[in-house]
Amino acid sequence: MKVVGITTQQEFFIGSKDRNFRINEFLIIQDPFQGDLLGEVVEAKTFNRYIPLNIYGDFVDNAVLESLKALGYDVDEDTIYICKVRLINEALYPVETGSDARLPKFEEVKDFMVRTYPEEGFVLGVIRNTDDMAFEMDEELKGILHTFEDGVLKEQRELPYIMDVKSMHHYPHIGIFGGSGSGKSFGLRVLLEEVMLKDIPTIVLDPHFEMDFSTIQSHFEDRKEIFKQKFKCLQVGSHVGVKFEDLRSGDLKNLLDAASPLTDAMNNVVDIIFRKKESYTSFSNRLKMLSEAQEAGSSGEIENRIRNAKNDDEKRAWEERRNMYQTYDKTCPYSSVRGVLWRLNRLYNEGIFSKDSREIESSLLDSKLVVIQGSTRILQVYSTYLLNTLYHRRRDYKDALYKQLPAEFFPPFLVVTDEAHNFAPKGYDSPSKSIIKEIAQEGRKYGVFLTLATQRPTLLDETVTAQLNTKFIFRTVRASDIDTIKEETDITFEEAKRLPYLRTGDVFISSAVVGRTIFARIRAAYSTSPHTLNPFDELWNKSKEDDDRYYDIIMKKLPISEVDMLNVIQEIEKEEGITLTLGRLEDKLQSLAKKQYIKKEETFLGYRYIKV
Amino acid sequence: MYSLNKDLSNRIKDVNTDLSNRFNSIFNKDKDRLRNFIQSNVGMILTLEKLTGSELEDIKIRGGLVGVDGSNNRMGGSYPHYIEAFQAMAKSTIRMNEPIFVSRVYTPLLDERIQNNLDTDEEIPEENKDSILAGLEVEAAIEAVKRLNPHIVLMDGGLIRYNIYAAEKWQELMLLCIEKDILLAGVIKDIKTSIIGDELKRSFKDINGILYDRELLYGLLNYGEYIPIGEDVNKKERKGYTSAFIRSSLLPMVIGLDILNEQGQYLEYISRLVLSLTPENSRGVPLWLDIVDKEVKISDDMLKALLERYLDRGIYQRFFVSERDKRS
Ligand SMILES: Nc1ncnc2c1ncn2[C@@H]1O[C@H](COP(=O)(O)OP(=O)(O)O)[C@@H](O)[C@H]1O
Ligand SMILES: [Mg+2]
To answer: Which SS3 state, helix, strand or coil, does residue A516 take?
Structure first.
């Protein structure tokens, strides 16, 4: 390997007759004047001056090549390998043409490649094309992970990529970009596994219901118990929600706004009518009474209703409406009151007020990973409240510490979300955006860190994007997203060109800590996504399950003849609590017969089903 | 767009008319007549078969094929402030045989013949250059024959040239080849002979001017045909060689082949080898010679890089950088 052609202080070419270069591989250039220089391959090419055989414009046919081969000369062997190398640190002078190049020893690149050891970092994957020096690395770095390639689990052959956790104090926020199917969610899963192993309190917003860690790849069965205790999956409405009594007027407005944008007048209605520590029922009742009074139309009409009340209860109710009406009608227009009520109802129906967020808070205090599941819209609503609450608890705690006031401990934590562009969209306001923006800008001070994944970096708020210090960039095909990535990260021109062709799970990691881009492959996850089942398999499994169930029930009743059917239906209903119509039982019998679990036969009384 | 000078274009049209008249008048575009004339006066027109796989294999076993070619390039200003590099190469098709290079550098500034005779402003004759190059090529070939013991040595160009410019060494090479049973041949892309034309003139007294073989043979032979030239018609100064014309590619031009008289019986064999190694869609030169040519070539860039690297900057600038170079 030698430096060839014209060189500069930063870039040059290296040629070799027998070594095919790999992109992102490191080389040491032995410059006779400047000493050893460390460079990285940024482009690799092979070249054969005779293939395609076009010498002086002549095209060469295969017959001639075969003849030459018979004479002992195989032109294929004339292939030479060329790579473009960029120095890690600029040299003082252009690199001497003709300098020898060699592969580095592990020690020589260690500082660039492995900044931390497994105990102190997230073991996320391998650094691509480093197998040549991997055998020299420290024992603690060997055999610490597997990769999953072409459907097979492989032993580690390359240097591990270990993300330094402590440096997150300086460079807290992480972005994960990549088109659909590029390996983002998988990468997120691996990151979260590491987060759990390091006992970092974490909130995950999971709109895809995929961040479950209870199923472990069979190869890693021994990890099962570890994860089981370290995460919790909670669904908004079913397991967690907002305790209405805890809401401040600002929180409530955020929630209502997230349900559907609030007008100024509606904001005003909340300010005027909402009372601190009020229950949901009380607040919603008062709004209802006010709106009913307004529907009545006038004080006169309300007095009328009081006078004509059929009983005391009704009378009292209208008296209350009258009071509401007199206090609030001037300041709270009917349409705005209805608007607030409608939004409030919507949230209520989604179950948001039926639970509270205690479980989340206590899990964070236990250093657990809390996965919060719900539709994107619900999560938008809920995360607005939740992140505000959690972030402020942490902030209040830190501020109190600073002021040397007594305070209740609240831990630092990580906020992770997929489809981040839905939570902090570019170009328009959304309630969750302001809290995410705040964390992006101020979170470092308080130890609140973001990890935002999105397939559309272009749609993510640019202030937020600018705060992401470490970026994982998976395969990206869309030109506008590639442009955004070029602007927002320090990936090189050559790397950007490769983005559309990356294999699933391969990733450029552009990190402010390292100051350069690393080409890596995410390791095999220990756990599997609950959706790894192919949807068609899922369908078939389901129908198989159904079959099995009916098979058992029906077998007990065989033989079943045409005239028995109604009796059989009644018996099944009594014994199994399953109600079947005549048609449905027929269907089941036919389908079981078709699958040859049972047999249909003709008798003089018509047909009947019997055992095979 | 170039601005066209009407007069110039007319003059070029005239050339076209004159040249086409010259041919049409002689042959009336009658291909067969000319082919017949050649068959009865110059040599048979025969069809070649490509060598078979086992024949090629056999060449390998007997030591393979060595191609020999040379190249020169110069840099600097006008006489005597230039420097000229020459190199010749012999490359074997047997890959483990390293190619053999021999080279020389010449500058009039260090030529004693000139330095002793400073008052003549005479540039050394072109001949000098030719003899350096021919000499190097023969040296490379001799080296290859001695070291590699190939079955065939193929020179780029006709063999007469070596008699003229490197007689002594050439003699040595020929003897070596004959002694070691190594076939020595030369392939001529640009044939400059007028063998057929001279025969025509002998038969048809009214033809005047020189008629070159390349003009006459253009499009006359079919792909794979060749004409072994009768010994008696091979001109006096070509004495010692047995020659042939070969249509070795689909393009209409024809190439020439020289071998030693002593090895005359291999004319067809070598012609078949040439056909086998020539790409159908090329201008007729065996690929091996093209490969050697490419490798031996001293490009401008390469020469410049060499001079810049190995001459002191002052020396390079003072002696060899011309006004024209500085400007560019
Ligand atoms: N590092 C990896 N190693 C092996 N398989 C992977 C890797 N990353 C992703 N995959 C597989 O590729 C598919 C798509 O990955 P996923 O993470 O769901 O993509 P995305 O979230 O970007 O749409 C999944 O089936 C996943 O199992
Ligand atoms: Mg995904």
So the answer is: coil
In sequence order, which ranges of B85-229 are alpha helices (DSSP H)? 112-115, 126-148, 160-165, 167-180, 195-203, 213-217
Report pLDDT for B328. 44
How many separate domains does chain A show? 5
Distance CA A149, CA A138 (A): 24
Chain A residues within 8 A of B278 when measuring between CB atoms: 64
Cα separations in angstroms, B187 against A75, A568, B166, B207, B221: 22, 100, 18, 30, 17
Q: What is the ipTM of this complex?
A: 0.79
| Interval A172-195 mean pLDDT | 94
Phi and psi at A424, nearest 5°, equal -135, 70
- Of chain A, the percentage scoring pLDDT greater than 70 comes to 95
DSSP state of A530: G
Residue A343 shares a structural domain with residue A362: no
Considering the domain architecture, whether residues A407 and A421 belong to the same structural domain is answered as yes
Is the minimum distance from the CB of A182 to ligand 1 under 6 angstroms?
A: yes
CB contact under 8 A, A58 and B290: yes
Phi-psi region of B308 (alpha: psi -120 to 50; beta: other; left: phi over 0): alpha
Q: Which residues of B touch A5 (CB under 8 A)?
A: none
A27/A153 same-domain check: no
pLDDT-derived band at A284, boundaries 50, 70, 90:
very high
Beta bridge partners of residue B101, listed in sequence order: B89
Both A370 and A342 in a single domain? Answer: no
Report residue B69 as tokens. Answer: 């070619």
Q: State pLDDT tens for residues A147-157.
A: 998 888 999 99
Residue A289 lies in a domain: yes
Q: How far apart are CA A237 and CA A220, in angstroms?
A: 33
Distance (angstroms) between ligand 1 centre and the Cα of A524 equals 10
A68 and B93: CB-CB below 8 Å? yes
